[in-house]
Amino acid sequence: MAETPARGRRSRSGWAGVRRGAFVVLLGAAMGLGHDLPAFGLAVTLSAFLLALRFVPQPGARATGVQGWLLGVGYFGWTLRWIVEPFLVDIARHGWMAPFALVLMAGGLALFWGLAFWGAHRLARAQGAVALWLPVTLTLAELARGHLFTGFPWGLLSYTVIGGPVDVWLAWVGPYGATALLVATVCTTHHLLTRRPRWLWVPLVLGAVATVGLQSISAPVPAPSDQIVRLVQPNAPQHLKWDRDWMPVFFDRALAATGAGDAQTAPDAVIWPETSIPSLLNYAAPLTDRMAQAARGAPVVAGVQRREGEAYYNSAIVIDGPDMISDVVDKRHLVPFGEYIPFAAVLRPLGLGTLVDQVAGFSAGTGTGLMQVGGLGLVRVLICYEGIFPEEIDRGGPRPDVLLVLTNDAWFGANAGPRQHLAQARARAIEQGIPVIRAANTGISAVIDARGRILDSLPLNTQGFLDAPVPTRLPVTLYARLGDWPLAVLLATLIAGGALRRRAIVVDRTPPQE
Questions:
Q1: Higher pLDDT, 64 or 264
Q2: Angle in degrees, 0-180, between the axes of helices 201-217 and 169-194, rounded to the nearest 10
Q3: What are 383-406's pLDDT values in tens digits?
Q4: Taking a C-beta distance cutoff of 8 angstroms, is the pair 477, 452 a contact?
Q5: Assign residue 77 a region: left if phi > 0, alpha if psi is -120 to 50, beta otherwise?
Q6: Cβ pair 461, 443 in contact under 8 A
Q7: Is a pLDDT exceeding 90 seen at residue 319?
């Protein structure tokens, strides 16, 4: 039976929609490539995003939202591809979950982007003007992604500017403000190319002039101090890290690195990574005494797990000599579904108690995360996951001299995950004007100055240690003073104004009732 013309048109239209959707997903993945190409990341992300604006906006708000979701699926699917790595540590038990984890994570986070494109279309009231509202709605969506449901601000678009000519944005308006500026640059350029309104050249020129001006008035980075910090990288693969036969091997590696050299080359402080002491702190006295002896009087900061009553903590300690633990800081921002189960009190009555009990039951710490470390001064400790949250730096107390990141990136594999995690540590340095010292189990351990520049580092999957001068901090940045509240208020005000304006226009166009 011959195909009817109407059915043929629907079939061709359906395949065209599938091809369009697949192409949008690929464009999203191309945007994610910006995190993998430090020298060209910003150009790649901008180009792919600019092209995406040609295909994503549709005649209807719902269709635009779907295309925006597909763009997010591609972006997060590529950017977060490392999320499968933890499931491959014990592949026989957990490997089957890896693809589901990636699909659910990418699809879930992409919902924020879908809502942003839907909202931009609703506020714009026309397909061609979606780009003018997208800097507002997409930035607000990214703020929500970073804070709702415990928050997950990994892979922000603004991280592609790190190491480039505009990373000064992070010091002035933070990662979300920089995201807004980045999206505004792309969307303004798109509108200029498609609609050619002359007035839009004004914000582009003013933005470029302002960026150059901000760079020129930025304070120069002071010379490093004469204090030397040693970063220890034992390189313990995750599948062997807690093996009873291998734990002494990795501990002895770190111990040998701590005591390497002679009195003339001894460091002023030694930093071990997250959970690098293979024992609960409650029983670790013999190990910490050996660490103190190897350090020859220098304080050692190391990651360790500890128990207090029925609660377990992921912690960092300062060892100032045999039998001298001078300070303890507990991890406060835990990894959901990794270190604890969110909303456990709600899940247990629903019959999901087994799931809750299977996850390591860590408790969240309290306090400012500050500790005094000889050779470094006042430091704020960020343990692994805490380093991806800009607001974690502001816990109260005096401004630290150094941000100290202890992490175990062996969970993330040997490619995208550790490199993206390092980029976020660089962002924290720029945002605060405070140097970052980062000790990672399998790498990348690094000393980062207050401009976010890597002064020295140990590569991935390398055993060894690194001695480097301790960088000095800069004056407090504008973002460190104000945080994200001004941006959030501005975005909410713009959206409220746009919604009221749209409603007024709709009411004005409603024909009078007879």
A1: 64
A2: 160
A3: 999 999 999 888 888 999 999 999
A4: no
A5: alpha
A6: yes
A7: yes
Strand partners, 279: none
Q: What are phi and psi of 295, to 5 degrees?
A: -75, -15
Most confident of 184-193, 377-386, 408-417: 377-386
Q: pLDDT tens, 187-199? A: 888 877 777 666 6
Of 85, 142, 241, 331, which is the active-site residue? 331
| CB contact at 8 A, 160 and 41 | yes
The answer to whether residues 437 and 403 touch, using CB atoms and an 8 Å cutoff, is yes
Torsion of CA 39, 42, 48, 52, to 10 degrees: 170
The maximal CA–CA distance of the chain, rounded, in angstroms, is 96
DSSP 8-state secondary structure symbol assigned to residue 222 = P
Q: Please provide the size of the chain in residues.
A: 514
Q: Which residues contact 93 (CB under 8 A, 6 or more apart)?
A: none
Alpha-helical regions (H) of 433-467: none
Both tokens of 296, joined, read 């020859």
Could you say which of 142, 187, 241, 384 is catalytic?
Answer: 384
Q: Is 384 a catalytic residue?
A: yes
Task: Tell me which of 274, 339, 386, 431 is the catalytic residue.
Answer: 274
- Is 274 an active-site residue? yes
Tell me the whole-structure pTM to 2 decimals.
0.90
Residue 7 pLDDT exceeds 60:
no
